[in-house]
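Study this pair:
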Amino acid sequence: MALHRDIFWVGRQWAVTGAGIQAVDQRLRGVLDIGIARLWDDSLVQSRRAKPGVNAEDFDKALKLARERFPENPVSAPFLAQLKALGVIEAPVVSPAFPAMQLRAEGRLARFLPQWRVRR
C-alpha cells in the first residue's frame, strides 16, 4: 500500500501519515502498517515491534509522534459518555430479518460449486 498523501514525519523505516504508522519500504505492501484506530492497541503494537528487521528506535519514535498527533480519546468523548449515561445511545440492534450470510464452500473446488447470477 502506498504511503498516505498526508505525511507528518518520515524516519529511516517508518512514517507517520494520515493513515497512522506506515512502513516506508513499499515492498512490504502495508503488512506492518498500523491504522489510527489501532494505535492504542498495545498487543498489536508489541507484535509489530517484535517482528524481525524492525528498527525499534525508529518505530518507538514514530509511535510516540503518532500518538501525540492522534489522541486516544476524541474531543467529543465527554459528550458521548453523557449520552450513554442518559440512555440515548444504546448498543446496535442486530436485525433478525437478515441472518448472517454463511459461505459453505470449504473443502470443495470452486469450479464444481453451483453458479448464480443476478437476473435483470
